[in-house]
Known about the structure:
Strand content: 5-15%
Number of domains: 1
CATH architecture: 3-Layer(aba) Sandwich
Radius of gyration: 17 Å
Bound molecules: nicotinamide-adenine-dinucleotide
Largest sheet: 7 strands, parallel
Strand order of the largest sheet: 3-2-1-4-5-6-7
CATH topology: Rossmann fold
CATH class: Alpha Beta
Structural class: alpha/beta
Amino acid sequence: MKLEGKVALVTGASRGIDKAIALAFAREGAHLVVNSSGSSEALDLAVKEISNMGGQCLPSIADVGQMDQVEAMMAVVEKTFQGLDILVNNAGIIRRGNIQTVTEEEWDQVMQVNLKGTFNCCKAASEIMIRQRLGKIINITSVAGKVGDITSAPGYGPSKAAIDNLTKSLALQLAPYNINVNAVAPHAIETEMSAQWSKKKRKSVLEAIPLKRLGKPEEVAAAVLFLASEDSDFITGEILDVNGGYLMD
Ligand SMILES: NC(=O)c1ccc[n+]([C@@H]2O[C@H](COP(=O)([O-])OP(=O)(O)OC[C@H]3O[C@@H](n4cnc5c(N)ncnc54)[C@H](O)[C@@H]3O)[C@@H](O)[C@H]2O)c1
């Protein structure tokens, strides 16, 4: 098993891509901390499903955008597992619209969860990982961080572009401590987020993907698993595309 005995924290982990990542990790022998901003039936179900696979699974309620809540979450993780090997910053939100319709509040919300949430978790987790001289951080970004997007309200793409840069900067800063920092940039994955698309948007998305289908959460999870495992020990600062060929950079 690729993650035997490793301790992994996945943020925003109760459905969609996040749940697929947590399940893939559990299948490979990891102990999981599944974070959510609030308690929900989906979180309870995810915890039950992961626990049934044999490893430990700790639910953790924290808004990743709030540093005090993130620090409290990390303290519980360290006390429970005496360390943290893998952090996956998956929690993310999107707002639809354009520059005319977006509100300042929506801009702030997206930046708070996507960018500040990723920063908060990286900062708190890296304190543990620096002490260990060991760790893997994987940020879930988006193709929207690399190309312009006319359907999401301004905020989502810029937040993801900033996560790409944060990934590379932290890869440099944390390399001396044997901590790898990478990102996975999905595009067009079948989740509740993409289920909000209009028929017109779905059609145009499919037309632009060479593989002519949407991706599956499990396909994103497979890329994240690679970056969480020893198979990628010599890779850091990489933004790995999972996009059906939509963008080849
Ligand atoms: N679905 C896609 O096609 C797609 C494409 C590119 C990137 N992504 C990225 O993948 C990640 C997962 O997306 P998804 O499609 O599974 O969406 P989703 O909405 O199903 O999952 C997002 C998760 O984040 C959680 N979350 C939101 N705010 C939070 C907060 N403040 N604190 C903690 N958790 C919070 C939500 O509860 C939810 O579980 C996101 O970062 C998203 O931007 C998705």
